Amino acid sequence: MQELESRVVLEIDSELLLNDVEFSNAMLSKKELSGADITFVLRNLLRLKYYPVAVKFFYSEKDVGEFKKNNYKVGRFPYTFCHISAVSRQSGDIVFAEKKNLGCSNARYLFGWKDFDENEVKSHLKYTRDMEQAERFVKTKPRLPEGLIAFATAPLHKAPFKPDVVHIICDVLQSYHLYNDYASAMDEHPLRPNFMMNSAACGGIVWAFVNRKINIVPMCSGSYTAGKTEQGEINVFIPGEHLEPTVRRLLERTVKYGGPSFPRTGETYPGFDVCKLCNFLIFKEVNR
To answer: Which of 106, 127, 152, 282 is spaced 20 to 30 Å from 271 by Cα?
Structure first.
């Protein structure tokens, strides 16, 4: 065992990992990027603080059975979708949830596990002018196709399934890089985020799943509190099949320009903040 550990340590080339261009070239030489590869690229080049979360929506009992052959966790009590995603993002756990495990009425409605009702409208009254507007707004929200059996979340590098959508929590500048690389990789512009009142995380992922497009949304009240995002983070949702092309575009840029930063082209992320201590930014007192 000690011999194996020594061999593994010797095979890790730390200098290559810290050289943006060499690291990117090494990753691009791979025919296919694994979930672990993608996670490491995002953490290494864009400095992601959390694990990207792979999300799977189960519509087949067979798929559920295959998933349950793995080790996973289930909430002791019903929790929000934000809670469940946060557990995978921060603790690195694989989590399984059925209707009984989901405690958020907004998410239940969007996941097709609850019918439209007056209580759903009332939960939006504090955001709207009146009941009529609240009802209209709730009815404009996208919903998953009928028949959802369960869903699972997992850190991307541990996911025992092919993700339908990958949920990334990051800062705004990181989301800007992801959006630009997605647009270039998928040859789509402009990109149009879709934000839903009172349903940032659950609504954001449903929209991305249904439309098969990237989505980026700020936090709602629930995803700020239950989702553990007290540091100004933002939600990014990328369809599973679009994530590798997006990450490959990031790697290609890094090789071409010398670094992944957009604000400071050719520099390592995020690049030198040119405004800090800039002698052109001076404020003087005006005497009256």
So the answer is: 282
